[in-house]
């Protein structure tokens, strides 16, 4: 273990011997840090944090911090659980949980740019990018392979579907469905995230299927339930199934067509 002499590792912290910890960082009692993690300067890992392997935590990051929730008391805290190969740039702040037993969860291979934030009980999957200042409120769900641009604010309980992209300075108050491109002062559906889909290996047939499903959802004039039934019947496939299930499980409703 390579620990700078100014770092503070409290008794009761579980730190793998392969971990590097830089100057003036603090790891609280109860925190768990897995193999080959790199904690740089002035970071703070709170006691409710459980971190996997090969994560990089840059200067000034706070992980597992107290939620910005007026009802919070320390005895109600639930964990922040982080997977493997995540990169947290300078000033990132992620809260522990409070309202759910599972707490806040971050998957694998996510890239959090400077000063991005996730609130309590947020659920973030794998291979997502959050640009500078992107903010996820409490209970937000981000699936996999999403791109959340700079200064985006996502309302509590809203969901971002897989392979979606949110344009910069967008306010997201409702669910953004999978594969979508959303933009606007209040997020609107403005098309498919074509670049993300191509990078993700979606071929022309898959992209065409997704486009046809959203044409039914947004442009057919059908009631939403009827459009989803037709989508499953006329355009069967895993992408259609993902879109239909996502929409059917929405609690806040979908963003509207831009």
UniProtKB/TrEMBL annotation:
- Kindly state which keywords UniProt assigns to this record, in alphabetical order: Acyltransferase, Lipid A biosynthesis, Lipid biosynthesis, Lipid metabolism, Transferase
Question: Where along the sequence do coiled-coil regions lie?
Answer: none
* One Pfam family hit: Acetyltransf_11
- GO terms, biological process: lipid A biosynthetic process
- A GO molecular-function annotation: acyl-[acyl-carrier-protein]-UDP-N-acetylglucosamine O-acyltransferase activity
Listed SUPFAM superfamilies: Trimeric LpxA-like enzymes
Q: Which residues form the UDP N-acetylglucosamine O-acyltransferase C-terminal domain?
A: 175-255
One GO cellular component term noted in the UniProt record for this chain: membrane
* Record's signal peptide: none
Give the matching Gene3D superfamilies. Answer: Hexapeptide repeat proteins (2.160.10.10), Udp N-acetylglucosamine O-acyltransferase, C-terminal domain (1.20.1180.10)
- Name-wise, this protein is UDP-N-acetylglucosamine acyltransferase
Species source reads Marichromatium purpuratum 984
């Amino acid at each position: 273990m390579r620990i700078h002499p100014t770092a503070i590792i409290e008794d009761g912290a579980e730190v793998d011997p392969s971990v590097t910890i830089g100057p003036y960082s603090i790891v609280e009692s109860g925190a768990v840090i897995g193999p080959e993690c790199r904690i740089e300067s002035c970071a703070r890992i709170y006691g409710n944090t459980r971190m996997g392997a090969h994560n990089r935590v840059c200067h000034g990051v706070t992980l597992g911090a107290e939620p910005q929730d007026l009802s919070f008391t320390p005895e109600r805290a639930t964990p922040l659980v982080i997977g493997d190969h995540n990169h947290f740039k300078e000033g990132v702040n992620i809260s522990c949980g409070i309202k759910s037993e599972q707490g806040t969860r971050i998957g694998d291979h996510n890239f959090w740019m400077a000063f991005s934030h996730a609130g309590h009980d947020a659920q973030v999957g794998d291979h997502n990018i959050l640009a500078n200042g992107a903010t996820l409120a409490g209970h937000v769900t981000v699936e996999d392979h999403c791109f959340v641009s700079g200064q985006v604010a996502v309302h509590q309980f809203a969901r971002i579907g897989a392979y979606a992209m949110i344009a910069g300075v967008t306010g997201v108050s409702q669910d953004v469905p999978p594969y979508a491109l959303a933009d606007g002062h209040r997020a609107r559906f403005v098309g498919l995230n074509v670049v993300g889909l191509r990078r993700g290996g979606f071929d022309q047939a898959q992209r065409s299927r997704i486009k046809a499903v959203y044409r039914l959802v947004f442009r057919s004039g059908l009631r939403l339930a009827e459009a989803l039934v037709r989508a499953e019947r006329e355009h069967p496939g895993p992408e259609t199934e993902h879109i239909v299930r996502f929409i059917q499980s929405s609690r806040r409703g979908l963003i509207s067509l831009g």
